[in-house]
Amino acid sequence: MLYILGGLIGAALAAALAVPFLDWNRYKPEIAALVEETTGRKSWIDGDIRLRVLPAPELAVAGVRLANARGAVDPDLARLKALELRLAFWPLLAGRIEIGRVTLVQPRLSLEILADGSRAWELGLRVGNGKAADPDGFKLQHLAIEAGTLTFRDARSGLVERFEAMDLTGGFDSLAGPFQAKGTAAARGVTLGLEAAIGRIDGFRPIPISLGLGLPAVKAQARLTGSLSAARADGQFAGRLDLSAEHLGAFLATLDRAQGGRGDTPPLTQSLAATAQVAAGIDRVALEGIALRLGEARIQGTVKAAFPVGLTTLDIGLSTTRLDLDPWIAALAAQPKPAAATSTRPRALFALPADLSGTVSLVAEALQLNGALVREARLEAEIRDRRAQLRQLSAQFPGGARAGLTGSLTSTAGGAAFDGRIELQADNLRGLLGWAKLDPGPVPPDRLRQTDLTARLQFAPDSIAAREIDLRIDGSRLTGSVSAALAARPALVGDLRLDAINLDAYGIFGGGGSAGTTDWSALAEVDADLTLAVESFTLAGQQGHNLALAAGLRAGGANLRQLTVERWGGASLRAGGQAIDLARKPRFGLQIESHAADLATYLRLAGADPGRGLSGLGQVALKATIDGDGEGIAATVDAAAQHARLLGRGRLALAAGGTS
């Protein structure tokens, strides 16, 4: 920017000082022609020209414009509302321009990279004899920019960045440097503090560079120091990056606002400090020896990126010995919950860019989470062709548990889709559940121990599924699949098979609940279909075999298509039924058929002592119909034995808070 303005100022001065006592407003066309000859670009002076030679030359020009290159979006490369400058007199006699002070009022500079890669701001500065201008013949002691604007465009990538409200001071010893600048500007709604010191640009010698970027509102600062090998397109930068922020939450909120977010401040009070060695060229950048401090946490690693035409490659490798996540989670949980979305469409998780490839490796020897250590946490992934291949996501958890996830994450039209496998082994599942703050309920302490799980896990923006499930727990094995459609009205589907289970050992049916009504309304909010097959089970101290269940939920009602037990302690069972209006006034109907070797079998299944007198009644056939609602339950029973038959009908009234 200073180079362009310097060239423009020099050309204007050469014209204006040639004959200082004239009314130069009459010679604007001639001055514009001279500037065009010097810069190679058309120029205009829309305002007045004022010139005073003594006691020191002073020039004021209003409304200056310099044309942009052909093909640029902005017709003007540079515009000035006003230019005011004061020169040193004696250097002029030696052919040098030394400016004591120059003030640019509302300058507008448009820097563009055109579609062919050329830079629209590159000027071929010439003097009248056709020789290149001497960069040492122009010096600026003090430059002040008031309310300036800088726009950068890259026609190849579509990138547009705009810096406004620029208030800067600086100077340079020559058009070849060194340069200094300091001030403030606004970009993407965020106020920035800017500092720059660039050494002399001299042939192929290294150029010292020091750049600072700050966010004064949140006390954050980034500084890049080092040197550029040469002022050429293939020049290489080597140096150091330092980054600090006093309040991590405020820093992240500012970055979010700059990216178009709401800028909500996460309640993260940790400070941030980072250093890294930087090596960069026009198409690559590498951060090595990263040392990142977040509060008490320390993170090390490397980040490398390359930008060949049409492609971005990114390789990230970070590690830490110990990271305490509990304060972060507690702070995030304390945030106010965002308002619920009104859209019923599932939210797209993310989309991978087509031109992105790379690798990610994240390792944590220990993570403090939920008051305990999660060890050997590791993430290894590769990104290519809109697909993230998850090579490994694993960790060791409390309860002697180890979990791992592998698979492929792809971008679809609606968002992300994953297809992979999950594995879990736990010596003490109860310990794992306790660490995760999941209550196992009435299950006795000797249950929920040894566990081994494998499954195929799939999800898309509108569905999630676990298939090929193979779960072994406490000697039982469960296989099958479950899936859910994630819509305004969720739909669940399950098809499961269980080889054996001791229900008595889990205490599932052993305790009595409190009397009262049951709220079934939650079941009215989903659709579901479940099939379950159990080869053998133990309930009420009796062995059972070949239990089959088929049931569903739809449109606020329930349908028990099938419940059959081939053998259970000498009895068989078949049942079916339905329920309606679960959300408001549930009503149900149930039909039951059963056969047993004798009446004593039913008493044993009910946990009663059958005595000795009931065994001689012979086989029993039982049919029952049960209907109920919120007010009571009515039953009709038809029981037939070898020498007797019982017909009965009754009703149990349900009072508020109990029965009568």
Notes on the structure:
The protein has 660 residues and is mainly beta. The chain is elongated. It has a 36-stranded mixed β-sheet that branches. It has eight helices and 36 strands. Helix 1 packs across helix 2. About 1% of the residues have low confidence.
What is this structure, in a nutshell?
The protein has 660 residues and is mainly beta. Helices cover 11% and strands 54% of the residues.
Sheet of most strands: 36 strands, mixed
Number of helices in the DSSP assignment:
8
Low-confidence stretches: 341-349
Helix content: 10-25%
- Which class best fits the helix and strand makeup? mainly beta
| Number of DSSP strand runs | 36
**Through-space gap between termini:** 91 Å
What would you report as the Rg, rounded to the nearest angstrom? 40 Å
Beta-strand fraction estimate: over 45%
| Overall pLDDT | 85
Q: How are the SSEs ordered, and which strands pair?
A:
Layout: H1 2-18, H2 28-39, E1 43-45, E2 49-52, E3 58-67, E4 76-87, H3 89-93, E5 97-105, E6 108-113, E7 138-154, E8 159-172, E9 179-187, E10 190-198, E11 207-215, E12 220-228, E13 237-245, H4 248-258, E14 272-281, E15 284-294, E16 297-306, E17 312-320, E18 323-324, H5 326-333, E19 356-369, E20 372-384, E21 387-397, E22 401-412, E23 415-426, H6 429-435, E24 451-460, E25 463-473, E26 476-485, E27 491-502, H7 503-506, E28 527-539, E29 542-554, E30 557-568, E31 571-580, E32 587-596, H8 599-605, E33 620-629, E34 632-640, E35 645-655, E36 658-659
Parallel strand pairs: 5-7, 6-7, 17-19, 18-19, 27-28
Antiparallel strand pairs: 1-3, 2-3, 3-4, 4-5, 4-6, 7-8, 8-9, 9-10, 10-11, 11-12, 12-13, 13-14, 14-15, 15-16, 16-17, 19-20, 20-21, 21-22, 22-23, 23-24, 24-25, 25-26, 26-27, 28-29, 29-30, 30-31, 31-32, 32-33, 33-34, 34-35, 35-36
